[in-house]
Write a structure and sequence with these properties.
By secondary structure, the protein is mostly helical. It has one domain. It is built from four helices and two strands, in the order H-H-E-E-H-H. It has a two-stranded antiparallel sheet with strand order 1-2. Strand 1 and strand 2 form a beta hairpin. The chain starts with a helix and ends with a helix.
C-alpha cells in the first residue's frame, strides 16, 4: 500500500450498489489498470502502486454486486470497445 493510501484509507462503498455504481466501477477498473514499471506494477493513470485506491474500490463494488470475473471482463471489454 502506498503512503498516501495509509493516510487517506479506502474509498467508502455505496450503501447499496446500483447499475450506475457498476458503470463507475467498471470505468475505475479500466482507467486504473496495471502497467509494468521497473519497480513493479503501477496504476497507468496515477502511477501509484497497483492496485491503486480507485481500482480497489471498483473491484469491491463489482464484487459486492455479485459479478463473476467473466462478467467483469465482459463489462471491461465493452467499456474499451471503440464507439461507432
Amino acid at each position: 500500500m502506498d503512503s498516501i493510501d495509509e493516510v487517506l484509507g479506502e474509498l467508502p462503498m455505496p450503501p447499496y450498489v446500483t447499475a450506475e455504481d457498476v458503470g463507475f466501477a467498471v470505468r475505475a477498473v479500466t482507467v486504473h489498470a496495471a502497467e509494468q514499471w521497473p519497480e513493479g506494477p503501477r496504476c497507468r493513470n496515477d502511477r501509484a502502486p497497483h492496485p491503486c485506491r480507485l481500482h480497489r474500490w471498483g473491484r469491491r463494488v463489482l464484487d459486492r454486486r455479485g459479478l463473476s470475473d467473466r462478467q467483469v471482463q465482459a463489462l471491461i471489454a465493452e467499456q474499451e470497445a471503440p464507439r461507432k
